[in-house]
């Protein structure tokens, strides 16, 4: 029996090339799986490796990747946020509502991001100040936000007619679709924050050992509230892109997106136990799922079988992943 | 020569980047207590984990009663008659004491159904052996103090009734009294013919019970000697590889200005009406039995109890939260490094820096250059045995983990340093270094509150000692007045001595 | 005080229970609103439940409604087979019951008011075939598979496709009656297929999602797009020439009709065993004549 | 000097009645919240406290309570099972399929429970033998089982005509609806297993400290596999009741039920971190949600507002809950 569980970390720097190579594999195994998937996709469909399709996939992925970025922070502090989809729907509805009321675009965007942020902060306060488990707190907020969206929209999509607004979801800058740019900016920023700021490092410390973080004088509560706030804010950003793409706010927007976002985070290597992982992995996780969807559609796999295929590929990906990490250990 | 019950020959074990064991050979006979000694990170725990089947050695052989065996896993090790108390606890928090002791071996009514009455009765028997007579077998483990948990671990190990019992620093978390009890248990075991391997950094314990010592250094076997033929001084030299003079440095007198003042401090059932002042440059010892409230006091001073009454003042500032405590210049080295002191999954590097991040960043952005300087400084100053600072702190040996906890608070340049069992699990060489550091800090005017169940340490370092009992201070003793006897008397609930 | 109010409710006013399969879809929201509007108009009480597309929850909803002294029960079933058990429960407690939109395959219903989903699929198929001259690359975007409307519209549409040998279905995907999903599915289909002549989406929400993708790809002119339901935004899209057609199954009317029928039954009037409302093709030609509210 | 270590504990035992009362509150706080809710419900609706309505609520709750019982075990070992709803749909489809093929009822029931069990075991093997996080493993299996259900049913509900079968969902024994009896039997059995068998205690040990469980020689892997197997099996039992209630197998059955089941478990006091909690709490958690739904319907709250009300009541319940546990602590 080899219980040498904790061996893996020690290596990083020194010793043999073989081990370095394995370290590399270990650290970037999701990336490898992703490339593998892309290569397979290229073989299976001629349309896959065209610039326009790549832009297409990236644009589709942007909404979930942005939400999953916020989810990454929440999971890093060992929490979970089930309300992201519902908050996205409500922020989108507010956006459309404000635009329909004839107010300028910047007011609408401000209103919708503030609403997203507020919902996130409420989550954070319930979780960190009242000690309610985040799963149940955000589930309650999810149900409430859904209800508020239905009440506000009366169950109908709200159509947006502001043509300038279309640019956010459908415009391009230097040929690159705007949602893609927004996505990379946000992920880049979060990557930097997590790595090079004390706020970022505290997030890891809280997830790793909350008690020790409190004793190190870290304001654990405020940081938790901030993390949930960021998740809510990023839900609103996704809502803006989504609403702009459809030029209407859907009351059902984001239904079930929380599970996809969590899946992206976990496939990307962030542990549900907190304290370990990062946003780059999450991006890759989201891309894996996005490429998979895209490929199955490109190949026109029957919808009944799409589910099966999708489940199997995810399973294979995580199995390869766990293989790699075992390889490394032994 | 009598046949050894256990013999390990030429054992090597490598972890990536570390050669933890390099051809180590030890043996233990029936009715013998072998003390396994060595500095932090010498490889003692690793050697024992090889015996317990947790680690597979990369080479070497193990013989039990002269027969070579290979140990496949923990269960197999138990079957071979080996039972072990790990340095880190292996208990399940939300299960009862009884369930923890018999985990995996519960008495059954029929297949699969536990005989709860027998479980309870048998547990009581083992708890009595370790002196936990009043503890109900149904108590949840999470409700026990660290020392009680340690005793439960010991009861558990005894309950296996194995031939070979390994104890990896069982006394580190025990006070004098329980330690004495445990040493008696060990003598008992010896009488009954068991072979015992005992790891400790307290050499007086070694002299009291061990028959023989074996010493490791840097993963290598240094030597073995009968206790009759060796002095404490020689033991230290074998372990450290150099001469060690004065363990306790000479202290200067404290300054006059007060550093921290506590008035009418009460915390629920833990602390009642605590009043004292500590001066700059003073080392104030705190003594008391288990449950006397030393740990709650340390936490209260650090602002951890929001519902406390009374005031804590440092340089005119009052302290109500850990953050305020840190801002006021207080640092707390907790006695529970695993749960409170360290983020085990993070690197040594980050653990050393965690409380300092606020200082070495501007607008929240960290400066890389400062970080590395700080880390290198403390790894050197405290002689932390780690081959690179990016290593996860959880993989360090127990004593080296403790040094990381110390380092991260020393880096904060505190005005008031609260040390709760600071040398728990730390080897004698490093202890001397830490004591030296404490002396220097005190000379710079830093006030040190030293909570320790290590009597020689307390007596040797304190200017003054407060004795606690049941949440109150029962005595305040000056250097001229304190001795072990007096302290025990007050700790057991004597009257206030002014 | 609660009691007297309740007594008043049972004595004076008719109390109608309306068990909706879901309100997560504008179509059904409009059914509900039509019913509520008519209830107000005719001064009857109406109690609405939302089964969130779950037949099990719908059975529970009906059980809960039956606990509340309703006089008559209207059901828009989540599933035609499963709802039979709920209908039987109502039968057992002697509460008259009938279905709207989707039928019940069991129990005794006083009547059924609805549209014919197969027919609606047929209309879409025929329109497609006529506009494209019976020839071309076709995309079908299906509704929720596992609901009978989703299945039957597809069936109706494909009956025509099969009769049209030069139709080639190049993609058939489900977007669960959802606009956002339809956009995504359509984006991928547009990537994979350089030539697309016609797109049939099983409801207007999906048609509008597909339209967003088609517009972004700049291929509006090449593609004949047809939806179903005749909700306002799709009527606008038809007027603007972005969408070619939809099929009017105005839900608001359906809701109103349901309440009128409930009152009739309670007054002891005779009603037809089955009322199939007309589904009409809506194109640029007649879009301004069609009334949906 | 020989007064010993355990002073603090003795104090705890003897001491004041006040503390005992608080302990009681702490331990049974969910029950209290539940009673509170029922009392409020009784005031708000005359129909609530009728025998027929109570039977009604219990019967409605049975399906989710049974699934949540399996989920409790999974969560106790610090896992999660997102596949329960999809497995329920597939087991139901198999049941209907076998009946439609004209085979006897017992064969159909056997087939469907075996299928449920198998899915559960597959989950268990992936999680425990390959070390894949349970969230992602069961998510993949969920998607696969959904796909298989659609393929098997071709997307249509499968009607069951076996009249004897109706008894399971709609029959009564001594006036008590059969699903309620099944529910109580299962929960009672699980309660006993968790408390009095070594298997049950090992579940807690694994969730509390897996390392310690391994070192104690417990066959952690097999137990994990068994736990997931039980969860799958109980999904099938729920499927049988559900299918019998509707006399048809729905391809969409159980969609989203995993979140409700997890919510019931957490409201019932079982910690997502594992090692702590039990099935009685889960039953209460499921009842709280069931009563809430029932009450909102009885009171004729408009569906859009029902979401908001439901979310708020859950939030209030967990906030009271966390209050109670704070009370105890201070
Ligand atoms: N799981 C592991 N992974 C990597 N390195 C390890 C692991 N366990 C121990 N080591 C390393 O092996 C060396 C020996 O550690 P060990 O725990 O045996 O020391 P020790 O003699 O018990 O020290 P202490 O007195 O501090 O408990 C140390 O350098 C330690 O960092
Ligand atoms: N009655 C109690 N219930 C729960 N936890 C307690 C109780 N009493 C003490 N504790 C906790 O147990 C730990 C040990 O407390 P204790 O009073 O034994 O400390 P101590 O006097 O410092 O003894 P030691 O020297 O063994 O640490 C502390 O962290 C304290 O918060
Ligand atoms: O008839 C309705 C509508 O077309 C709706 O858009 C989807 O569900 C169907 O039942
Ligand atoms: Mg050690
Ligand atoms: Mg203490």
UniProtKB/TrEMBL annotation, chains A, D:
Pfam families: BPD_transp_2 (PF02653). Keywords: Cell inner membrane, Cell membrane, Membrane, Transmembrane, Transmembrane helix, Transport. One of its GO terms (cellular component) is plasma membrane. The chain crosses the membrane at residues 30-49, 61-80, 86-119, 131-153, 173-194, 225-242, 262-292, 304-320. Its main location: membrane. It is a multi-pass membrane protein. It is found in: Cell membrane. CDD domains: TM_PBP1_transp_AraH_like (cd06579). GO terms for molecular function: transmembrane transporter activity. This is Ribose ABC transporter membrane protein. It comes from Sporosarcina newyorkensis. The lineage of its organism: Bacteria, Bacillati, Bacillota, Bacilli, Bacillales.
Automatic annotation (TrEMBL), chain B:
PROSITE patterns: ABC_TRANSPORTER_1, ABC_TRANSPORTER_2. Gene3D superfamilies: P-loop containing nucleotide triphosphate hydrolases (3.40.50.300). It is found in: Cell membrane. GO terms for molecular function: ATP binding; ATP hydrolysis activity. Transmembrane segments: none annotated. Its main location: membrane. GO terms for cellular component: plasma membrane. Pfam families: ABC_tran. CDD domains: ABC_Carb_Monos_I (cd03216), ABC_Carb_Monos_II (cd03215). It is a peripheral membrane protein. Keywords: ATP-binding, Cell membrane, Membrane, Nucleotide-binding, Repeat, Sugar transport, Translocase, Transport. Residues 6-243, 242-495 form the ABC transporter domain. This is Ribose transport system ATP-binding protein. It comes from Sporosarcina newyorkensis.
